[in-house]
Each structure stands twice: as structure tokens, then as C-alpha cells.
Amino acid sequence: MIMNTASNAWQNLKQHSRDMKNTTLNQLFECDADRFNRFSVCLDDFLVDYSKNLLTDETMALLAQLAIKSNLVERINEMFSGSAINISENRAALHTLLRASKPTSPSGMNIERLKQVQESLSKMTTFAEGIQSGKLTGSTGKPFKNILHIGVGGSVLGPSMAVKALAPYSKNAIAIQFVTNVDGADLHDKMSNLDPETTLILIASKTFLTQETMLNARSARTWITKALGTKSVGNHFAALSSNLKQTEEFGILPERHFELWDWVGGRYSLWSAIGLPILISIGSENFRQLLSGAHQLDNHFRNCSLEKNIPVILGLISIWHRSILGYKSHAIIPYDQRLELLIAHIQQLQMESNGKSINRDGSKIPTDSSGVIWGEVGTNAQHSFFQLLHQGSDIIPCDFLIAANAHHDLQHHHETLIANCFAQSQALMKGRNLEETKTHLRKKGLLQADIERIAPHATFPGNRPSTTILYKKLDPKTLGMLIATYEHKTFVEGVVWNINSFDQWGVELGKELANQVLAAVKTEPAPSELDRSTSGLIDQIKSFQKAIN
Ligand code: F6P
After folding, report:
1. The CATH number of the domain where 225 resides is what?
2. Using CA positions, which residue lies closest to atom 1 of ligand 1?
3. Rg, Å, the chain Cα set
4. Range of 520's domain?
């Protein structure tokens, strides 16, 4: 299907946005006492309030028409059926099968895939229990006290995010650290506090070829073998990968190889063997809860009508913001310290999936695709970039995330956190006009001259959109629901933009050039085929290096 922005569905939305030009959120709330109820959806202990976005019933109806014209329902079914919807790589995108208890379609292939998933989960569980209980030890017989998980992108962002988010559910004293950057400082600083005898190293790489991960893995292997001898590799390493051949060549024992498959994309892989550190940290029952939360959301996404479907609603609002209203970025603001790493996870999820300009048919897409996803935890963000959110020239929709209940007993902290979260979305929406600002300053006792001078700076335009995701408590099931929500939201956007959300060709050129440049960095002088800027920089690097040595 070619996406056609001249179609009625797109043009109706464009016209509607012009009709809405003078409407404000304050007006929408004033004329509809029930707006919160009508523009929020609750699924068990998970509530999404999208009432503070500039939209009406008509907006949602027009967006739903666009979704229908984009064959969203058919495309959802295609994804769950396991057809090769990742057309440029001829692969299925079946991360939903990783959290399913039954095959997501009756095809023989999916039944076989589910069997493999269950076998893999059971192998992971046995291994995790062996590590937790101390039955599996390092080469000198000492139990493991530390885990270094080495990976990059989807092979680290999901697991590190979930381990931190679910820290209160951690079952044991094994400390898990994540090494991701090829900058040696990352590995060096983490290894320097560890004892090789009690350290287990997980190499997480779907391809087992990624330059940064493999370099970190080889350096970690040297660190282990120097301290404990070459035979210790079998005891101290495990691989989470689809590349059995490469893991064997590295020295990983087959029983320490945890498999994933080409139908699991990197940024959707935390549910697979890539999630082994999560399982080790929180135990198998909690890990299953994480999967079950995501599975519940999958069922909701697959079966619920478009009007009440959380990922559909969020995906369509995102289309409204980006392609119709032209907003350039979207901020994720968890008022939840333990969700600090969720921002980077969603960033990869949305920007690597939909940061593309080519249709599924190979032609250029006629509208803007994914904007920049960014953010920071609240309340920290309030004291850095919220100035721009409130008074800057760009409108940036925000997602606010907050739990009703904390895991600690510092109740006053949690109440303050909640108050700040809600106050910010309220301030973004309501704003404060010039007259209100002057009254406010007058009440504070300022002189009239000061009021006139300060008031223009202290007004707030308001009418700035936000969505609030509120959950009972950040437990494994809720985290599963939350991540799956963003996965499917991303899918919905990709369907409407007619993008293949499951490939990532945009990362390839830089990877190829890095190999060429590496050769140049190592040779002397830099080869002449490099562009002048790059060769100039390399020459300068060499001169700075000589000056130090
Ligand atoms: O460079 C991008 C990417 O391919 C991501 O899509 C992926 O999550 C990451 O690199 C890591 O890849 P691998 O798991 O194969 O090492």
C-alpha cells in the first residue's frame, strides 16, 4: 500500500487541525466535565490519561479512519501470525510469541517456535537458579558474586532498564553491571572493582559480530584467562545469541549458549535469552510475571476495539502530533527514578524503528516520520529543561509516568513526587496569561513598575499537550505492560507511515566506515582516500598522541 497524504483520511485531519487552531485545552475541559473519563483508558492497574492532548471526539474518529485506511487491523494480525513483515530482511517480528502461553497463530511453524521459546526459558531458568544457589561456580569453585553483561543497543538497553526498574524484586546478592561502550573506560572501570574468580560474564549479541561488543568480550576474556588460565573461559562465560558457530569459536560451551532467533529484533529482545540478567536478578516467577504483563497487553492490542485500544490511541496521537501538527520531538518523563533507563530503551525502540524516510515499497514517505524521543526523570528534569517545555518556542508533547504506590516507606517523598508530576502537566496545559501573571505578582507585593517589567517573562502560554500513564505499583507485570505498550505504539506509527519498523539499515554506513577509519587510525600517515576533514582529524590525533608519549 502506498501512503497517500492526498487521501481523504489525511486531508480531513489537516482540515480538522485548521478548525482546531483556536481551541484550547482549557476550553475543552470547561465544556466537558467528563473529559477525563472519556479520554482515558484503564486496563487493570494501568491507566492512560490522554485528556490533556488537544483533541476531540472528531479528532479520534478521523485518526481511527486513517488507521483503518492504513489497514492497521490487518497489519496487527499479520504481525501476530508470524508472516515476514520485516520485508527488507525477510523476517517475522514475533516478539509477542516470547511472552505467549499458546502459539500466536495456528501455523506449524509458530507451534515449533513456541516450543523453542519454552525450552530456552527453561534452560535459562535452570542456569539462573544454578547461579543464584551457588551450585554453578567459577573455575576455582567460588560462587559468583558479580555479573558483567556485555552488549550494545537492544542487547543491553532492555535488560539494564528492567534490572534497575525491578530492583526491589531482586532475589539475591549478585551484583549485575552492564558494559556497553567500546570506550575502554567502561569495561576498565567496571572490571577494576571485580574479582575474576567470582565474576560471570554474559556476552549478549544477537549476531555475535558487533564490533563494540566483541571487542569488550575479547578484552574481558583476556582479563579472565590472565587471572585464571585459558580453561576457565567455559566456567566464566555465557552467550546470549543466535550465532552458535561464533559463540563456540569464542570458547562458550554449548550448555552456556542461550539462543534467540532471527524473528526477534534486538530492540524487542529483552523477553528472550537477552533477558537472562533480569531472570537472574528477579527469579523465574517474577520474570514470568513480566512476560505475562506484556502478554496481557498483546491480547489487548490484538483484540480491543481501536477506540479503547491503548497502543492504538497512543500511536495515533503521535501521528496527530508529528504528521499533522508538526511537533518535532516527544519527551518521556518518568516520575520514577527506577525507570531512568526506560527513556533510552524507548528512544531506541521508536527512533531505530521509525526514524526512516522510505516507505515499505521503497519510495520516499510524503510526511514526517519519527521525531526525536528524549527525556529525563522527574523531578530532576524540572530543574533542567522544563523551562523550554513551558516557555520555549517549540511545543513538545510529554509522557508523564507515575506509580500510585512506592516500594519504600518514605511516604512524604512519594506524595511530593506525585504532586510535582501532576502539577507539571497541569501547568503545561493551563498556562498563565499576562493578566493572571500581573495579579499573581501583585499578590506577592511587587511594585507596579516591577510587575510591568517582570510579567511578560513570567507568563505561560499553556495549551501544551501531555499524556499521563499511571500504574498501581512498578511491579514486573506492570513493567511488562508498559514496555509492550510502547512497542505496539511504535508499530502503529510505522503502519500509518507505511514504514518497515523492524529493520535498521541506517546504522550500517557508520559501522562500515568505522572499519576503514580504524585502519587509518592505526597506519601512518592517514591514507589519502579519506576526506580532508577526517584525515586532518586523524593526523591531529596522532600528533596529540605523540605529544603525550
Ligand atoms: O547497531 C544497531 C544494532 O544492530 C541494534 O539494532 C541492535 O540492538 C544492536 O546493534 C546490537 O546488535 P547485536 O545484538 O547483534 O550485537
Report:
1. 3.40.50.10490
2. 507
3. 26
4. 512-548
